[in-house]
Amino acid sequence: MPSMDQFTEVAGESGPPLIGHTLQFVRDTTGLIARMHQQHGANFRIRMFGQPIFVVGEPDSVRTVLLDRDKNFSSQWGWDHAIGELFSRGLMLRDFEQHRTHRQIMQMAFRADALRTYTGMMNPLIERGIEVWGSDKEFRFYPAIKQLTLDLAADVFMGVPLGPEADKVNQAFVDSVQASIAVIKKELPGSSYRRGMNGRRHLEQFFGNRVEEKRAGNGKDMFSEFCRATSDDGERFSDRDIVDHMIFLLMAAHDTTTSSLSSLVYHLALDQEWQDRLREEAMTLDSDHLRYDEKDRLSLMDRAFKESLRLHPPVPFIARRALRPLQLGGVDLPAGTSVTVCSLVTHNLEEHWSDPQRFDPGRFSPERAEDRSHSHAYFPFGGGAHTCIGMHFAYLQVKAVMLQILRRYRFRLAPGHRVTMIPVPIPRPKEGLALQLEEIS
Fold it and tell me: Which candidate among 120, 151, 166, 298 keeps its CA 20 to 30 Å from the CA of 59?
């Protein structure tokens, strides 16, 4: 692993002795990144968890890392320190040919006919989930949507409702995700990392006990699809592969979607004009239930969702490790360098985004198309070979949920409620996002 001495000519800081920027990152991620960007430019160095990190936000450098045409960067070794044990052998923790093979098999669960089936499965669950929301005087959106997306993921991914296991499974995911930013990655008594690893073991048992049944059945859920899928060469997943991928995907399916929906609803609660525009568009559809063939009719919703992802990317840091010496952004990096692509920088560059701190879905209109000012000015779902495999499912799920919310409720922030967004490990509103809901008659 390179030492800080090898980065003395790279713009940035080493931070306090021993701990570097670790505590600043955990306590105020957005503030730290904004300050470093302002003082040192779009690419800079920091030090966290005992190692130097080259943070990349300049679009040309982002493109080099994410496309990785020369196979210089490892995703597996980039993420290993943070989630190597917690989400072991998930797709994000595989590289090159192994990653390509596993992704090809997994892609079977995201083909168009499968997405059409998932849409039909989600709609009645969404209706049952949101119809009781208006009964709460002070409604907390984040825990409610987290429960709904977990139920959706269980039905669409697993093919069975979680039932009494729901709370345990949900807590296991919460503990595993939170443990990814633990300063000490040891299972010390009472530590967040130990809770995370206990959560991982619970999930392994939960999924492992169901593999045989799913492989033998003819279910249309994603779990069943994985159990039966084969690559072009006839390769299949082992039981262990299936468990590893299901743990990672179910986390992604409900944690990142919960985050994205919370960010979108937060901004629409503040901007009643855009909320009304999206509701008017939603009312042009014939039903509260989204039909797969109608997904492209919600163009304004597309823009608003993209804008919330720009301001609050679900995965704001994309970790890689350099496999060999190379030059990146005019800087010579030794082999072993930790490189982190940071959309919190790129998505706020004034040379690509007008008034970047403002919620402005219009920037994604065909007339303005600010996201196309550079091929990598905008990358909420990553890029290159590791582009999020569930990207189209995420858009579909968000549209299905928002269609029903907009047609059923008007919403605004509860009086006196101030929202603080916590950006890591996955963005979420600190106080749960308190809303006032008005049911539309």
Answer: 298
